């Protein structure tokens, strides 16, 4: 697995927290960054630049030909960073399922109610046919990202996500991770993820999502060396 990050320089103020948490929990993984062409990112990432003039889905698509179709990636955006240690043993089981074509993608968080349990793993559920892909940390092959972003219409990120239905994504086996015992509901639409404990999402309408993740964000922002909350200095 490699980490595949999509970001934009408009969110440069979020990057230091992405780096802080990724360095803490995912330091051993190779990382790729898709970013707008007039920006720079950290040099330990493999950088692929897109044209700002393109709409969201075409920005992502324009970068993917530089990657191996069969490679499995964890696809994220910059404000979806970890606040606790992932369960790598389970993530590796998920990777094996994708590698062996038991499913096409595994979203590392649950949304929606009344989901049917998958038969291929005790912690996997079937995503609803009305939304087979979400802009959330997801394990999948590069060729699956290509398939989704080529076939799903949408002039912006919200239209695109809303259109990721069976209408455009026939035969896509789409699952999500959920532990029925310990994953509690967070907000109106989604649950916590014990397998990949991350902030979903840290930024809403250009502001930190303190409403749902106040405790987690404050713990990330706190700089014990200076006894301050570092986000005030952003």
Shape: globular
Mean pLDDT: 94
The level of helicity is: 25-40%
User: What is the helix/strand order?
Assistant: EHEEHEHEEEHHEEEEEHEE
**Total strands:** 14
User: What composes the largest sheet?
Assistant: 8 strands, mixed
Distance between the termini: 31 Å
Backbone CA Rg: 17 Å
The poorly predicted ranges are: none
Major sheet: arrangement of strands: 3-2-1-4-7-5-8-6
Q: How many helix segments?
A: 6
Structural class: alpha/beta
3D structure, described in words:
The structure is a single chain. With 234 residues, the protein is of the alpha/beta class. It contains 6 helices and 14 strands. The chain has an 8-stranded mixed beta sheet with strand order 3-2-1-4-7-5-8-6, sandwiched between helices. The model has no long low-confidence stretch (mean pLDDT 94).
Name the descriptors:
alpha/beta, 6 helices, two-stranded antiparallel sheet, 8-stranded mixed β-sheet, 234 residues, 27% helix
Précis, in short:
The protein is α/β, with parallel strands linked by helices and 234 residues long. Helices cover 27% and strands 21% of the residues.
Helix and strand arrangement:
Blueprint: E1 2-6, H1 12-25, E2 31-36, E3 46-50, H2 56-64, E4 72-77, H3 88-99, E5 105-107, E6 124-126, E7 138-141, H4 142-151, H5 157-162, E8 174-177, E9 185-186, E10 190-191, E11 203-204, E12 207-208, H6 210-221, E13 222-223, E14 228-229
Parallel strand pairs: 1-2, 1-4, 2-3, 5-8
Antiparallel strand pairs: 4-7, 5-7, 6-8, 9-10, 11-12, 13-14
Helix pairs in contact: 2-4
């Amino acid at each position: 697995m490699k980490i595949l990050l999509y970001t934009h320089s408009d969110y440069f103020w979020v990057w230091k927290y992405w780096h802080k948490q990724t360095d803490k929990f995912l330091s051993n993984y190779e990382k790729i960054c898709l970013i707008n062409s007039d920006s720079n990112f950290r040099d330990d990432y493999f950088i692929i630049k897109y044209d700002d003039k393109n709409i969201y889905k075409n920005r992502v698509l324009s970068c993917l030909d530089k990657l191996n179709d069969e490679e499995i990636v964890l696809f994220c955006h910059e404000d979806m960073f970890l606040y606790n240690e992932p369960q790598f043993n389970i993530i590796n089981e998920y990777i094996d399922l994708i590698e062996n074509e038991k499913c096409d993608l595994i979203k590392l968080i649950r949304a929606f109610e009344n989901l049917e349990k998958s038969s291929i793993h005790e912690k996997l559920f079937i995503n609803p046919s009305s939304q087979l892909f979400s802009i959330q940390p997801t394990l999948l092959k590069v060729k699956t990202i290509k398939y989704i972003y080529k076939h799903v219409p949408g002039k912006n990120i919200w239209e695109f996500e809303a259109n990721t239905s069976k209408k455009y994504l026939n035969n896509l086996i789409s699952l999500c991770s959920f532990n029925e015992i310990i994953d509690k509901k967070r907000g109106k639409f989604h649950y916590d993820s014990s397998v990949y404990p991350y902030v979903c999402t840290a930024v809403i309408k250009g502001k930190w999502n303190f409403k749902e993740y106040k405790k987690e964000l404050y713990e990330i922002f706190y700089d014990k060396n200076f006894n301050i909350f570092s986000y005030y200095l952003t």
